[in-house]
Write a structure and sequence with these properties.
The protein is an alpha+beta fold and 515 residues long. It is 56% helix and 14% strand. Helix 7 packs antiparallel against helix 8. The longest helix is centred in the last third of the chain and has 79 residues. The chain is flat and about 155 Å long. Keywords: Coiled coil. It comes from Paracoccus angustae.
Length: 515
């Protein structure tokens, strides 16, 4: 009996030691003996709290006859304090972010967001936890946990409507607002949609360039910097005025371009005259035309002769194709006429044999002809009918071939007219473009030569949707990203630039004859 009890106790102790090792080994690996001791103390404290009522009942038994084992005072001294500090719950109600009144409307001429900006937004969410238990008389501060919402943070582009599109938040209008207001607006939108306490950090990742055109040495796209003014834009692009050392170089370039455009316009006019003559089926160019004389003066007789040769070749080829088509159609018409006569003759023979066969059939009943003679007449009638069908088939085929040849000739003529018309349209478009550029060059030359050049700047600023705001700018006007800055030359003494352009816009040939 004792051996059985001893074996059970040994087995129980081995199992208990194994379970204790399984429980203690992870804590020993993570924090060492200190962590193991803290876990053991925590288990002891929990077990003591659960067993406290039973222990109190055992230490304070009901009054029984006999001597007391311990006094009430000794029992009370061994018990822990009755009051325990309660753990406060998490504070889950976030406060709404405050947006200043200036962020509720566009902020005017400040450095604000525009359509095309790429804004980098970092959104941080914060949670406030209750304070840990503190000694009596001391106030423990609350614990804040702040973490970045990587699912919401990122770089976003301001669309044409002036809004950025954020995941789980939606569209937030930021155009016309500075970066602090962008942060406040996005924070308010995140609070209204997600009901979380958050803070937002905003910065520009990329901004649209400023576009400059007109009387500058370097037109095109220029980078934007905060505080950029018209004066700085003109300094970057290299504005031209009457005091610029490059004005004389510009004047020489304009004069060369004017001469080049003049020659180009005369050449295009000569090509247009050739095409118009080809459309009217004329094989020569009129030498009395002022355009021809101007072309001889500017381009030389060889160029005029080459255009005349091209016209003659075009007309000759067109007339040859037309003559071939007419010959083909005439031959087919003659063959059709011959086939028609042969068909009429075959139809006459078939009618004769048919009547003869009918007459011999009547004579056969009277015994005036034999059956063999009637059969011979019937065979001849069938041959005549077969010949008539062949002649009609030949006539139909010749008529179809004649119609096809006529259609081919008409299509060739229409295709030639279409090709010449398309070429004339291209030449006219090029002529108009060269004329417009020549007018601009002549106006600028006129202003340079009058020594009265000054600059005027206008800014075209994109607004909501397709709306564009035009601003008459001065040197201190602030420029925003995406603005189109137009630098134009004006007369210094109040001369209207439009009048100067109109007075300096000669006709195509007249400008060439001035040389």
């Amino acid at each position: 009996m004792s051996n059985g009890l001893g074996g059970f106790l040994v087995s129980a102790s081995i199992v208990g030691a194994g379970l204790t090792g399984v429980w203690a080994w992870p804590h020993l690996q993570e924090g060492g003996f200190q962590s193991l001791a803290a876990q053991a103390a925590s288990l002891y404290h929990g077990a003591e709290m659960r067993l406290r009522p039973a222990i109190a009942a055992l230490q304070s038994p009901p009054d029984l006859p006999g001597p007391r084992l311990a006094g009430p005072a000794a029992t009370a001294e061994s018990l822990p304090p009755a009051s325990l500090s309660a753990v406060q719950p998490l504070r889950t109600e976030p406060a709404a972010p405050v947006v200043s009144a200036r962020c509720e409307a566009p902020e005017g001429n400040q450095d604000t967001a525009v359509a095309g900006d790429r804004v980098q937004l970092r959104i941080f969410e914060s949670s406030v936890l209750a304070a840990a238990p503190a000694p009596e008389g001391a106030e423990a501060p609350a614990t804040d946990i702040v973490f970045e919402r990587l699912d919401l943070s990122g770089t976003y582009e301001v669309g044409a409507t002036g809004a950025v599109s954020l995941p789980a938040i939606g569209h937030v209008d930021v155009a016309g607002h500075s970066l602090p207001c962008v942060e406040a607006l996005v924070s308010r939108a995140a609070f209204e949609r997600l009901r979380t306490q958050n803070t937002v950090s905003a910065a520009y990742a990329a901004r649209p360039p400023v576009l400059v055109r007109g009387a500058v040495r370097s037109p095109g796209a220029h980078s934007y910097n905060p505080g950029l003014t018209v004066k700085r834009v003109l300094a970057q692009a290299g504005a031209l005025d009457d005091r610029d050392p490059a004005a004389k170089v510009r004047l020489i370039a304009l004069d060369a371009r004017r001469s080049e455009l003049d020659k180009a316009r005369v050449g295009l006019t000569l090509e247009r005259l050739r095409i118009e003559a080809a459309l009217n089926d004329r094989d020569t160019l009129s030498q009395d035309d002022p355009a021809i004389r101007a072309a001889v003066t500017l381009l030389g007789r060889d160029r005029v002769a080459s255009e005349g040769n091209a016209l003659a070749s075009e007309i000759q080829a067109s007339r040859l194709r037309r003559a071939q088509s007419e010959a083909t159609l005439a031959d087919l018409a003659a063959r059709i006429e011959s086939a028609r006569r042969q068909r009429d003759l075959a139809e006459t023979q078939m009618t004769y044999h048919a009547n003869r066969q009918e007459h011999q059939s009547e004579m056969l009943q009277s015994g005036l002809v034999t059956d063999s003679r009637l059969n011979d007449t019937a065979v001849r009638a069938m041959d005549a009918e077969r010949i008539l069908l062949e002649k009609e088939d030949l006539l139909f085929r010749l008529e179809a071939e004649h119609r096809a040849a006529a259609q081919d000739a008409e299509l060739a003529r229409v295709d030639r007219i279409k090709a010449l018309t398309a070429e004339l349209r291209q030449v006219s478009a090029a002529l108009d473009a060269a004329g417009s550029e020549l007018d601009t060059v002549l106006a600028e030359l006129n202003l340079y030569e009058n020594d009265g050049l000054r600059l005027a700047v206008t800014i075209e600023r994109p607004g909501d949707g397709a709306r564009v705001q035009t601003i008459a700018a001065d040197a201190d006007t602030l420029v925003r990203p995406g603005d189109l800055v137009t630098v134009s030359a004006e007369a210094a003494e109040g001369e209207d630039l439009a009048d100067a352009v109109r007075s300096a816009s000669p006709a195509i040939i007249r400008s060439a004859l001035k040389e």
